[in-house]
Design goal:
alpha+beta, single chain, 41% helix, disordered C terminus
């Protein structure tokens, strides 16, 4: 069942090591089928280079395995909590990418000091509290603290991203690691100052509603 979605979820998971966001068997990606509401998620403990679409696990929103020869990811409960509370989310990703996870280790949000951050995240990348792995507590922290950002850090743990598609969730995972790296370097060079909120809002509005459109490419703005 859901063979096409299994292929998409498998390929999405394989994108994570290609971008250097995970190592060995860490991290996971899932996606929700809009028609059935079922979720396809990475299996637990399988190395990425050995993973195939047939290894993907199908679960319902209560966590019952509907199809799959392997156990689902240990983060399944967290993913499902997000899906139950955010109908707009179609894909959830968890990574331990180095620089973003270093920020998570400190329990601090990544301050919005770059226009790229204002574009993608609409402000600082938030940081939720510590929560036990394998429980809904992580999902609770995500829903409570993520706001309109597509990415959130979890204290002492790592990174979660969400999106209306697998591609957008991967984009957020790539971007949060990229800006975490840049901000970390900038702090070694000198003092950083957050962007003014008005500039953050302006950049976020432009990127969210006009970036990549024909009007934007022609320099046309809208009220």
């Amino acid at each position: 069942m859901l063979e096409e979605l299994k292929e998409e979820v498998c390929e999405g998971n394989l994108e994570l090591p290609r971008h250097g966001l995970v190592t060995w068997t860490s991290g996971n990606l899932s996606a929700r089928d809009e028609e059935t509401g079922l979720v396809v998620i990475k299996p637990s403990g399988v190395r990425y280079e050995k993973m195939t679409p047939a290894d993907m696990v199908v679960v319902d929103l209560d966590g019952t395995v509907v199809e799959g020869e392997r156990g689902p990811s240990s983060d399944t409960a967290s993913h499902l909590y997000v899906y139950r509370h955010r109908e707009d989310v179609r894909s959830v990703i968890h990574t331990h990418s180095n620089y973003a996870t270093a920020w998570a280790a400190t329990g601090q949000p990544i301050p919005c000091v770059l226009t790229a951050m204002a574009d993608e995240f609409g402000g600082p990348v938030p940081c939720g509290g510590y929560a036990s792995i394998g429980t809904e507590q992580i999902g609770e922290q995500i829903i409570e603290h993520i706001g309109h950002s597509p990415a959130i850090l979890l204290a002492k743990h790592g990174v979660f991203t969400i999106g209306p598609s697998i591609e957008k969730a991967i984009q957020a995972a790539v971007m949060v690691e990229d800006v975490a790296h840049t901000v970390s370097i900038a702090m070694q060079i000198g003092t950083i100052e957050p962007l003014p909120q008005a500039d953050i809002d302006e950049n976020y509005e432009r990127y969210s509603h006009r970036y990549g459109t024909a009007a934007a490419s022609q320099g046309v703005t809208h009220a």
